[in-house]
């Protein structure tokens, strides 16, 4: 009984105390603390407190970030687009030696009775229809001509760009090498501890120039620089001189290639254009010839010490003398300069563009950095 009484008295005291607190709040005349917290995404109209998660989301929105995060309106094309129509092998004898070609596998294996030679050179790739290895594991391949040579089957790049179904809201890009982000746009800023792998996709929410590079904000408190990335700058309006609704854009500074139609970005990817002194010439051009499969070979030096041979290069689109957009099955990295003037794409990307493009379509080549020579007299015919 005494215990029940003590509990009853305690409850009465508590109720009196709470009543006094309530009256004290009422006496203050402030209704601010009676308002509920705003839910994330609610407008700041004075009917709720913009604190906690709602405040964080509002601040992110003001900085250009969406909640929930919005992905790009795009997808990777089917992987089958990147399957090569031929088998490729690289001649694996010393580059300063001509490569012998034989009439039979037995002659190739024993190194006897060569019937002709492929010139010496560092980059020599052949297409083949059959492969054999000897007991020592040396590779030999049979050419479409029925001849044999010593060459090792080569892997080719599987990277593919993005196909878009509407224009994205932000610029975007890919990492071209593994790199860690910074907390601010400076090499002196601390790193975040977040490491992005090669070909990681990101959106750009802000861009600043600092320390000789462009810096891109890719997440709250995360920045990467133009040295480790290739970015697509959205330009849906036709370039000057383009009087149709279709064009290809080649951005030499960013090393990105884009396809536009009716003001919509249809496709975007990384590319490789010409390096000094074999720059890819800026200007406005039109595709004058398409080749589904053809050899590319030649040299620039008088002594032909830089001879190259790429047999059966698929999906070529010629737009400026010998300069073309085409597959580069021998290349492992895109997003960097490195060709002799042509625009190199992965097999899947070249295939996509080849199917879309028509002879007569415009190709707009430009360099926003101004580092590429624009005087037409500087340029030769170009090469892969």
From TrEMBL:
Keywords: Cell shape, Cell wall biogenesis/degradation, Peptidoglycan synthesis, Signal, Transferase
A single cellular component GO annotation: extracellular region
Active-site feature positions: 326 (proton donor/acceptor), 342 (nucleophile)
Family annotation (InterPro entries): LD-transpeptidase, LD_TPept_cat_dom, Transpep_catalytic_dom
Coiled coil (UniProt feature): none
Signal peptide span: 1-23
Pathway: Cell wall biogenesis; peptidoglycan biosynthesis
Molecular function per GO: peptidoglycan L,D-transpeptidase activity; transferase activity
Annotated TM spans: none
Domain of life of the organism encoding this protein: Bacteria
Biological processes annotated in GO: cell wall organization; peptidoglycan-protein cross-linking; regulation of cell shape
Residue ranges of domain L,D-TPase catalytic in the record: 246-366
UniProt protein name: L,D-TPase catalytic domain-containing protein
Organism, scientific name: Candidatus Brevifilum fermentans
């Amino acid at each position: 009984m005494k215990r029940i009484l003590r509990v009853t008295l305690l409850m009465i005291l508590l109720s009196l105390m709470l009543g006094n607190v309530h009256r004290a709040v009422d006496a203050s005349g402030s209704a601010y603390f009676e308002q509920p917290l705003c839910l994330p995404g609610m407008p700041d109209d004075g009917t709720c407190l913009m604190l906690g998660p709602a405040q964080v989301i509002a601040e992110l929105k003001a900085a250009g970030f969406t909640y929930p995060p919005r992905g790009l309106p795009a997808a990777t094309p089917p992987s089958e687009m990147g399957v090569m129509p031929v088998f490729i092998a690289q001649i694996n004898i010393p580059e300063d030696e001509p490569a012998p070609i034989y009439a039979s596998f037995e002659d190739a294996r024993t190194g006897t009775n060569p019937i002709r030679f492929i010139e010496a050179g560092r980059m020599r790739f052949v297409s083949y229809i059959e492969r054999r290895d000897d007991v020592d594991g040396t590779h030999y391949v049979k050419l479409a001509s029925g001849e044999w040579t010593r060459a090792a089957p080569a892997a080719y790049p599987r990277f593919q760009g993005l196909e878009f179904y509407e224009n994205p809201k932000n610029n975007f890009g890919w990492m071209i090498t593994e790199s860690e982000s910074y907390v601010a746009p400076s090499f002196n800023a601390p790193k975040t501890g977040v490491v992005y792998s090669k070909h990681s996709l990101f959106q750009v929410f802000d861009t600043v120039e600092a320390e000789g590079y462009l810096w891109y904000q890719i997440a709250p408190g995360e920045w990467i620089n133009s040295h480790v990335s290739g970015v697509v700058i959205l330009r849906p309006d036709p370039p000057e001189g383009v009087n149709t609704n279709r064009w290809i854009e080649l951005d030499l500074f960013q090393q990105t290639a884009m396809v536009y139609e009716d003001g919509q970005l249809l496709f975007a990817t990384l590319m490789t254009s010409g390096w000094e002194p074999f720059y890819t010439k800026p200007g406005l051009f039109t595709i004058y010839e398409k080749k589904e499969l053809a050899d590319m070979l030649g040299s620039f030096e008088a002594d032909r010490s830089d001879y190259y041979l790429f047999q059966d290069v698929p999906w070529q689109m010629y737009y400026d003398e010998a300069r073309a957009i085409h597959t580069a099955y021998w290349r492992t990295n895109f997003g960097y300069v490195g060709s002799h003037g042509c625009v190199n794409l992965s097999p899947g990307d070249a295939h996509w563009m080849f199917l879309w493009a028509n002879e007569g379509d415009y190709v707009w080549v430009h360099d926003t950095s101004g580092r590429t020579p624009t005087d037409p007299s500087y340029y030769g015919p170009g090469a892969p």
